[in-house]
Every structure is written in structure tokens, then in C-alpha cells.
Design a protein that fits this description.
Elements (H helix, E strand, L loop, with lengths): L2 H11 L5 E5 L5 H9 L4 E4 L2 H10 L5 E4 L8 H4 L5 E5 L2 H13 L4 E7 L12 H9 L1 H4 L4 E8 L7 H17 L8 E3 L6 H6 L4 E4 L1 H4 L7
Parallel strand pairs: 1-2, 1-8, 2-3, 3-4, 4-5, 5-6, 6-7
Bound molecules: pyridoxal-5'-phosphate.
Length: 219
């Protein structure tokens, strides 16, 4: 694989304010090391055990993002080091993250995952549910988490108009809660649609296969 070339090719196209999360799930330590040596410091992983293992073996200045579906009983394993959790899809998960962050004496940054796709299988909160959390009294009591913004995944379709509508709905929603989060992190866009996502207001993209090549398997 030409990881360094791929990375530079993407980075050279990106506006300065876009954060690139290199999605390294299922990829070996050597591949991550190659990207790291090429200057990439932010990596995203989907599986808790894999993330913990990789974090242990790799340089400590890597910023690890958890981008998968997180089960409450596994928060404790990543709480000591994770720098951003993208997929917060329930109030109870947010409270558990707060609890584990407190135990580790830190504040953990989180994104609420919004459900925008037409498919039934994806996780996420409705706009109403996300708004309810942000405006609740209980939320203001959670001192060991910060909700910095929102994460979303568009429908898996070739219909770009559909994807665009879904991305823009997140941007609109974020404006409607600007009294709670004034400058939100907006995490949407993957290998297949990151340019469209950026046009639709994304400022954090999660790119895997365009950097590391196709994954041989998906868990
Ligand atoms: C795997 C994954 C990505 C990256 O997908 P690519 O198509 O390989 O860029 C981004 N976000 C999430 C949540 C993922 O699970």
C-alpha cells in the first residue's frame, strides 16, 4: 500500500480547518506507524479491544478517536486515554462516559451520533432526542464530559442528492442548537463522500480505505 502518498494526496486537497481522522480499524500496527511517520496524528478505531491493544503499542502522542458503536460496559477500557468518542447514541451512555472520565480524573470529549440515514440498521439519536439531552438539567451536571458536536453517517447509496440532503440536515440541526454548542465539531464524510460532506459543512472527516486500502474483512 502507498499509505504516505494516499495521505498526502488527501491532505493536500483539504481546507485547513478540516480535521482528518485516519480510520485504521482492522489494519496492523505497521500501517498505522507508516501513517504516523507521514505526519498523521489522529486515528479512529471501531472496536474497543483492538483500540486498547493498538494504543498500548503505539506512540503516546496519537489522538485516538472511538468511532464505532460503544457499549456502556466497555467505556472503562478506553476512558483513560481516548480523546474523542464519536458515537454517543444514548443519554445513559453519556452518563457512563462521564462516570468513567471522573474515575480517571479527566474530561472526555464526545459527539452525539445523529440518525440521518434511511436504513434501519444504523445507530443514532433523532434530532429531538439530541436536543432533549443538550437542553436537560441533568446534562449540565455532567462535569467530566464535553459534547463538542455531532457525528452522522449518510445512507449507503449512490444517490448523491439523498446523501447531500442528509448531511445538510445535520448542519441545520447544529444551527438550531447553537445556544448549546456554538462552534460544533461536525463529523461526517468517509472515503466515498468526504468531498461532498465538506461542501455540506463537515469539519471532521473519517477516512479509512482511501488511506489504508480496502479492508479484507469487516467485523
Ligand atoms: C469504517 C468507518 C469509516 C471509514 O470508512 P471508509 O469508507 O473506509 O473511509 C468511517 N466512519 C465509520 C463510523 C466507520 O465505521
Amino acid at each position: 500500500m502507498h499509505i504516505e502518498e494516499n495521505l498526502l494526496f488527501i491532505k493536500n486537497k483539504l481546507p485547513k480547518h478540516i480535521c482528518l481522522v485516519a480510520v485504521s480499524k482492522t489494519k496492523p500496527i505497521e500501517a498505522i506507524t507508516e501513517a504516523y511517520k507521514a505526519g498523521q496524528k489522529v486515528f479512529g478505531e471501531n472496536y474497543v479491544q483492538e483500540l486498547v491493544e493498538k494504543q498500548h503499542h503505539l506512540p503516546k502522542d496519537i489522538e485516538w478517536h472511538f468511532i464505532g458503536h460503544l457499549q456502556s460496559n466497555k467505556v472503562k477500557y478506553i476512558a483513560p486515554f481516548v480523546s474523542l468518542i464519536h458515537g454517543v447514541d444514548s443519554f445513559s451512555l453519556l452518563k457512563e462516559i462521564n462516570k468513567q472520565a471522573q474515575k480517571n480524573n479527566r474530561v472526555i470529549n464526545c459527539l452525539l451520533q445523529l440518525y440521518i440515514a434511511k436504513e434501519e440498521t444504523k445507530f443514532g439519536l433523532s434530532f429531538d432526542e439530541a436536543k432533549y439531552i443538550l437542553e436537560s438539567e441533568e446534562y449540565t451536571q455532567l462535569k467530566n464530559i464535553t459534547v463538542n458536536g455531532f457525528m452522522a453517517m449518510a445512507s449507503n447509496t449512490n444517490n448523491l442528492q439523498q446523501v447531500k440532503t442528509e448531511f445538510l440536515s445535520v448542519l441545520e440541526f447544529s444551527k438550531s442548537v447553537s445556544h448549546k454548542i456554538s462552534v460544533p465539531v461536525l463529523s461526517y464524510g468517509m472515503s466515498s463522500d468526504y468531498e461532498l460532506a465538506i461542501d455540506c459543512g463537515s469539519n471532521m472527516i473519517r477516512v479509512g480505505s482511501s488511506i489504508f486500502g480496502e479492508r479484507k474483512y469487516t467485523k
